[in-house]
Amino acid sequence: MTSSLHQQLADHIDQGVIPPYQYSYPPRSAYRPLAEGKWSIPDVWARDLTHHQVPELNLYLHVPFCDRKCGFCNLYTIISTDEDVYDAYTDALCTQIRDHAEIIQARRLRTIYIGGGTPALLKPRHFEQIFTTIGEIYPNWRSTAEEVAVEATPSSIADAPDEFKALIDMGLTRANVGIQSLVPREIREAGRGGEDEDVIRRALRTAHELGLPDLSTDLIMGFAGQTPETWRQSVDELAALRPTTISTYFLTVRPDAWFSKTGAYQYMWQPELYERYDYARRVFLDHGYVQEGSVRYKKPGRGGYVQKVLTFHGVPLLGLGVGARSYNSVLDYMCGSVKPSTAEVADYIKRAKGHELAPVTGFELTDEEIVRKRLVLDTFDLDLAELDRFGYQKHAAEFEAVLEAAESNGLVHRLGRRVQLTPKGFKYRDVLSWMFYSGSVKDLDREYYENLHAANKRARKNMGATPVRITGVDLREREGAA
Question: Where is the Radical SAM core domain (predicted)?
Answer without folding.
Answer: 51-290
